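Can't attach files on this board, so I'm pasting raw text. These are the components:
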Amino acid sequence: MPALWLAVIVLALAGIGYFIGRARALKSADGDIRLLHSLPSYYGSNVAMLTAVPALLVLIVWTIVQPLVVNMHVAGLIPVSELDEGVNLNLVMSDVRRVAEGLQAAVAQGALSVQAAANIDLGAVDLRAILGSVGVALGSDVTMVTLDAAQQYRGATATGQIAMTVVVLMVALGLMGYTLSKTNKELRARNIVERGVKIALISAAMIAILTTIGIIFSLVFNTIEFFRMYSFSDFFFGTTWAPSFGGGSALGVLPLLWGTLYISLIALAVAVPIGLFAAVYLSEYASRPVRAFAKPLLEILAGIPTIVYGLFALLTVGPLLQRVFGDGGLGWMDAASSVMTAGLVMGIMLIPFVSSLSDDIINSVPQTMRDGSYGLGATRSETIRQVILPAALPGIVGAILLAASRAIGETMIVVLGAGAAARLSLNPFEAMTTVTAKIVSQLTGDADFASPEALVAFSLGMTLFVITLGLNIFALYIVRKYREQYE
Amino acid sequence: MTDATVSPEKTPKRSSLHTASDRTKKRNASETRFKAMGIGAIALGIFFLIVLLVSIISNGIGAYQQTYLQVPVYLDPAKLDKNGNRDPADIAKVSTFGYTPLIQAGLLSAVQDANIDTPLQTARDMKNLISASAANVVRQDVVSDPNLIGQTVTFKLLASSRVDGYLKGRVTREGVAEDKNINVDQLDLTDKLVDAGIAAKGFNWAFITGSDASESRAEQAGIGTSMLGSLFMMLVVLGLSLPIGVAASIYLEEFAPQNRWTDIIEVNISNLAAVPSIVFGILGLSVFIQFMHLPQSAPLVGGLVLTLMTLPTIIISTRASLKAVPPSIRDAALGIGASKMQSVFHHVLPLAMPGILTGTIIGLAQALGETAPLLLIGMIGYIATNPPGNLIDGFMAPNSAMPAQIYEWAKRADPAYYERAWGGIIILLLFLLSMNIIAIILRRKFERRW
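---
Top answer:
Structure tokens for the assembled complex are below.
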């Protein structure tokens, strides 16, 4: 029975359990609701919860574990000696799975009878053609070994399915019966249900942790795999980036890091002065209406998706810069995509980020410090420069670090605006590329996931993750410490 | 009285509050400069915003106009129905190649009927004016109604993207010298066709409702299918991130004891909010596609990845709105005998709901515009030509999403696609704008200050 239907049946059982449980509790109190420990609906919910939740958990775990177990079992049956030289067991197993799926589909669509599918003689029938006709394309003809394994696979899967149905239904019915038998007016149903809800709340909070663990595992395992094939020092200290999918690639990260830093630097050079001055003006000078008008307008810039900025860089800013600095003008620029293009546009994107963070921080400087400064006869700008900004400096540095981590992790603007060539150069009008842009290009090609050219993307991701995480933790630490100072 | 004998040149220089001293002037000037720089910074920021919006609108508005040709096509029975029995099965066997010459001949006859003087004298010369999609349009009509065969029917067909670009000013006479797809004579003819009323621009519904097209048929490409892809993705995001986010926030805000575990979870969430989106793409690729073998390019996978990305946003805003509900509400509920759980679910949560919804909508808007993770789970390089047939296909079948589609168009070589990309951005921004407006209205209408 398919898992989906099983889930529906379990839920239906839970629904029935709700009403029986509620009725049973009321009956045990002779219909007098005041004699019950909890409200009647809690007795019903208690039964429904214990019927559905454990059974569904078993169902989920089983669906995930069964293919792994079956896979290992069948892989153990394939004689290693029968494999051709250089053929990977994983590849054979994926063939086996496809044949098994194909046979299943063929039976389901009526291309083969159940009997015929179980006793296939490779000499007599063209299995590949039959499977092709039901939409399962195979790369090569089916060998005897593969077919045997596929039949084993099908058998084990079918047995597993039946066992799963039985176990899940038994769990559901058993717990339902047990809970119903316990249901009477003394049962502390509300406490049980609330404990269940609390566990659900805790597991929701755990998803944040699971996401982090998922990120770290997916990066670490693939990175380790990569460093098995490619030397550690060549990756971190190599100065050329020249992947070739035929093998013999040079995968040095330095040009990518340089591109990333250079673009981020230009972006910050645009965003920090503009953002900071805007924040100072908005918090110290602007009247209420001006503030109410200008602040949201600037924040629109933060709400625009990065793909829009990417297109803006590629099609508007790039050609504009090329007209000024390109062959027609100063002759410094060869193509529209360059470090400058991406950096400028990224700077525009970061303006509201810097300005609203600094705005908050400047506003949290105590008014007494301003008053003291004015009292000594300082002008507004002197107060800002000599009192407020020094006081707010740690927080502003934190804001700038957060903006830098944004810039380093930004993808779409550099993919579209910075170019694809990895270089170590000082000319900001040259095309360069970044860590994020290369992650995209290495993982969206047709590369085999097991090749170092694709796996390098994971170690690039790891590098990026570590850098941005470090910056964030440091920045948040500074901001938090600064806040405490004035609270 | 010795003081009176002091000579006048020895008196100290007297300053007055009415005339500013040099030093005061300098200080005031620097004050003005500082203030001017603040104004300048804000003006620059707003200027960038205006440039961005102007360039989006001026480049993208063209995608909503498309050039159509009114072509009378003689549906020749000798070509389309050789057996003469009007059998739908036979008619369906004639491929689009059978229709193309008829359409070209139709345009030639229209040119001749309108007495247009042109050096182009054969039907084949008309080829570059008509979209490659035209034959399919005519064929669909004929297959669905075989009785049309033998008549001359006037079809409204798409002009080719070069003709369209010429009328919109994108393609110039100087620029077509090396273009294989159009020549100057054909552009001259285009001008005359416009005068004769055969070619005209109309509103481009097909762009909003249509599907993506292959690289050579820019005039046919639309964003409708990828809009559906985005819709299904947002359904997944909403269905998962709202309940999980709210549950997690309730736990952290109302139940969690102050201990190291809770601290770890909190630090974790604030760090997740700052992880670059591309890293979430890597997570999606290796967990959902490599490990769990979910289908590539499916909106379900995109939705799952975006859910993980939006969760921190939703958790942070939900916690803020839970915190804004005053403790007196909780105390009152507990005081009349509610359990802790009942006080939260019956009293605190409903009061915090407007804030939670506002945060959710803003989180969804962020997710809708996110592109980078979608690139890694295979939502590019795939031409979404057919809208999903049913609900399950909507979640599981490969599709594109609006931002991924825009990226795909921006990457193509034909400049006709740039116009489409800008046009797509207009739609994307309209969606984001309306979501944000809904969020603002919700906040204004339901927010309570205690």
